[in-house]
Amino acid sequence: MTLAADPRRGRWIPWLFVAGLTLTFAVNGVMVWLALDSWTGLTTEDAYAKGLAYNRTIAERAAEAALGWQATIAFHPDGPRSGRIEATFSEASGDRLNGLEIELVLRRPTNQGHDQSLLLAARGDGRYDAPVTLPLAGQWDAVLEARRGGDRFTARARLLVP
Predict the structure, then answer these.
(1) For the CA atoms of the chain, what is the radius of gyration?
(2) How far is residue 161 from each of residues 85, 110, 154, measured CA to CA in Å?
(3) Residues 6 or more apart from 98 whose CB is under 8 A from it?
(4) Main-chain dihedrals φ then ψ at residue 119, nearest 5 degrees
(5) What's the rounded mean pLDDT across residues 97-102?
(6) 3 state SS of 40
(7) Distance between the two ends of the chain, CA-based, in angstroms?
(8) Domain locations in the chain?
(9) From the DSSP assignment, how many helices (H) and strands (E) are in the chain?
(10) Whole-model pTM?
């Protein structure tokens, strides 16, 4: 007795491959859409020029370290998304630094187009501050550049703005 093959028995197998490929394309399409929709557009500007200037950047950092300056940066809120940015400077000996020109740039680490620049005013005893109102609450990167004569010092801090 021989068993005859039923032609209807394996008809679903090719459709299984079609369904698997369709699912793969659908998932990849969703992943591409999510990637494009959530991209903030943040990139490093002038990456090539920064790479060429790498040795100069190392020399500048060494000169900053030789100064022995130290800085602390803080945000003191006085309302929603507003407050005062304060920076305190001291020398390696612990003496406070006065007579600095200070520019502070606030950058949003996750969104483009909200950066702000501030000039901090001297308040005495190595303290400098400026009022600020920010468009968004959350984390901000503060990049501070202090200058006195030919000396230059850069400090960075991550600030949390309620």
Answers:
(1) 29
(2) 11, 14, 22
(3) 122, 124, 125, 126
(4) -105, 125
(5) 94
(6) coil
(7) 83
(8) 69-161
(9) 3, 7
(10) 0.69
Residues in contact with 114: Cβ distance below 8 Å, sequence separation at least 6, in sequence order: 107, 108, 134, 135, 136
Neighbours of 32 (CB within 10 A): 10
Tell me how long the chain is. Answer: 162
Give residue-wise pLDDT tens across range 58-95.
998 999 999 999 999 999 999 899 999 999 999 989 89
Give the contacts of 109 (CB within 8 A, at least 6 positions apart). Answer: 139, 140, 141, 158
Q: Give 49's DSSP letter.
A: H
Asked if the 69-161 domain carries CATH number 2.60.40.10, the reply is: yes
Average pLDDT over residues 108-114: 84
Position 42 scores a pLDDT of 66
In this structure, what token pair is assigned to residue 8? 């209807």
Residues contacting 82, CB < 8 A, separation 6+: 131, 132, 133, 134
Measured from the Cβ of residue 155, the count of other Cβ atoms closer than 10 Å reads: 19
